[in-house]
Write a structure and sequence with these properties.
This protein is mainly beta. It contains 4 helices and 34 strands. Strands 15, 17, 22, 23, 24, 26, 27 and 29 form an 8-stranded antiparallel beta sheet that branches. A 7-stranded antiparallel beta sheet has the order 21-20-19-18-25-16-28, with no helix packed on it. Strands 3, 5, 6, 8, 11 and 13 form a 6-stranded antiparallel beta sheet that branches. The relative contact order is 0.14. The N terminus is likely disordered.
Length: about 550
């Protein structure tokens, strides 16, 4: 059951940016738009920009305030961004420039805007005809497909404007105005991002993309109506539950690293080494395509994102396609730190060196190394494939610190997949006849969630991303926006007896929810009803 009371549209204080001066204005029916117009007194008016920073990517950027104003005002200006694309097929062909709304410093969260309160994002953009890259090359393909714009979601998360809403660049030396709808379910916004990833193209080597941005505006919603979120309950699947819970974290990784497996590696080992994972719950591939489970193997550990940070990584990806089949892709990269790798084996190259399609993703997948370079993959339905990754590639995995970090986890890969969860019912690693680790996650531990003698938690999303379920329990989730929610109430009678059980509300990115375990449900032996409530009624 759902119950949300009416709430006042305007209460408390709302941050308003006038030009680039931050003030706190009491809310009223005339609440204002938020505008960054980059006047000459701008807090951004320094070369390098205190509130703008090069976030990631191998393309160098220069951020500067200039007196090229969209309205032709000689006393005002704009932000100029110059991108110089790198050279060489192994370079990282992407850039990301963050712009904090506070203008104070990189990653600053001093000013945040709730998308629920705004309808559109607008800005003026001028593509400099002195850019040496072909404008079509900048626009077509890559990620995002288009100009490349999004919002900061947290200090490290991102929310990308959908490709159909990305600005279309015009190479005429004129200012153009763009309006992008804001989804009220997006995470709070502390800044904007200009970003583009492109695969290697020799024609782009050493070229420049130059553009100017002015009059960044968030249009206040003068007809604000807080929609009622929809709740849905689902019995929790026993095992290691992993949720893509980081708001805006399209490429967040959440999982565990096996401590016992670190000292067992296949290169130079006379025994076969097998990595097994049993997937017992997975997001529907037709609705949440791209969501992945994965196995990472790396000689360097100590990070939530070894596939990007570490130089040599085996990447075994498990996904469900739109037809409900399970698909396993085997990839690797070598000697490529802080990148996705390149070539046919590179993570974002022309493809995997091996692919196996099975009738379902649910069940046990086995990945075995019989020697340094020979690999066998067997799917839950018994279908399999075997191949050789090459002795030269395998040599890069010779452990230099007697360690082979072994990661099991998940990644959403799409903004629409944030908040989805998957479950491992068993993870097992064997070295010949030796069982290195075999965990069916039999004991729920609300403090540590996994056996600390077996696993290190590697979670971009923090504690909200992980839960070990060993009992009769339910996940009760609801979609954002959830407005002025106070909490969740339960009752065994839909008409009366509603109380708040005091369960923590967990943030799952595009969703929020609670976990109701046996200790809670024991008080509702016959029936359990849930509802959302708010005490902020007029």
């Amino acid at each position: 059951m759902k119950a949300i009371r009416k709430i006042p549209l305007h209460s408390g204080l709302r941050p308003v940016l006038l030009g680039t001066v931050l003030v706190l204005a009491a809310c009223s029916a005339l609440a204002q738009n938020v505008v960054l117009s980059f006047g000459t007194n701008s807090i951004f008016a320094t070369n390098g920009l205190a509130g703008a920073w090069q976030w990631w990517g191998g393309a160098a950027t220069v951020r500067e305030w200039v007196t090229n104003d969209a309205a032709g005002d000689p006393t005002s200006g704009s932000i100029k961004i110059t991108v110089t694309w790198p050279t060489g097929p192994t370079a990282d062909y992407q850039y990301s420039v963050g712009l904090a709304l506070s203008g104070v410093s990189s990653y600053d969260l001093g000013v945040t805007l709730n998308p629920l309160n705004y309808t559109n994002f607008e800005f003026d953009l001028l593509w400099d005809t002195n850019s040496t890259i072909n404008i079509t090359n900048h626009m077509v393909g890559g990620d995002p497909n288009g100009f490349g714009f999004g919002f900061v979601a947290t200090q490290y998360g991102q929310t990308w404007a959908p490709n159909p809403n990305q600005p279309v660049l015009v190479n005429d030396g004129q200012w153009h105005h763009y309006t992008i709808p804001i989804n009220p379910a997006w995470p709070v916004i502390p800044g904007v991002i200009f970003k583009k990833y492109m695969g290697y193209n020799a024609a782009n080597e050493g070229t420049t993309s130059i553009f100017y941005v002015d009059n960044i505006t968030f249009d206040y919603n003068t007809n604000l109506v807080v929609p009622k979120p929809k709740m849905f309950a689902k019995q929790a699947t026993k095992g290691l539950n992993l949720t893509a819970a980081q708001p805006g974290g399209q490429y967040q990784r959440n999982g565990v690293r096996s401590i016992p497996a670190d000292s067992h590696y296949w290169v130079g080992n006379t025994n076969p080494v097998t990595y097994s994972l049993n997937i017992s719950e997975f997001p529907n591939g037709a609705a949440y395509g791209g969501f992945q489970s994965h196995l990472f193997l790396s000689t360097d550990g100590g990070t939530t994102e070894p596939d990007w940070n570490n130089p040599s990584v085996i990447f075994v990806q498990f996904q469900e396609n739109g037809s409900g089949q399970g698909v396993c892709n085997f990839r690797f990269k070598t000697n490529s730190p802080n990148s996705n790798g390149v070539g046919s084996s590179g993570f974002f190259g022309t493809g995997a060196i091996a692919q196996l399609t099975a009738s379902s993703i649910i069940g046990t997948w086995n990945v075995s190394f019989s020697n340094d370079s020979h690999v066998t993959i067997v799917a839950p339905d018994g279908t399999g494939t075997n191949f050789d990754m090459g002795a030269d590639a395998a040599a890069w995995f010779l452990p230099v610190t007697t360690s082979m970090a072994t990661y099991f986890g998940c990644q959403p890969n799409s903004p629409a997949n944030i908040g989805q969860r998957m479950v491992y019912s068993e993870i097992k690693v064997t070295d010949g006849a030796t069982v290195v680790v075999d965990d069916t996650f039999p004991v729920e531990d609300p403090s540590y969630e996994v056996d600390s003698s077996l696993w290190i938690q590697e979670l971009d999303a923090g504690v909200n991303a992980i839960k070990v379920v060993d009992q009769y329990a339910f996940w009760v989730d609801w979609n954002k926006p959830d407005g002025f929610l106070t909490g969740v109430q339960m009752s065994d009678n839909v008409r009366t007896g509603w109380t708040d059980p005091g369960l923590p509300i967990l943030d799952f990115g595009t969703l929020r929810g609670i976990y109701a375990g046996t200790n809670t449900l024991v008080n509702f032996p016959n029936a359990a009803y849930f509802r959302l409530y708010s005490t902020n009624s007029p």
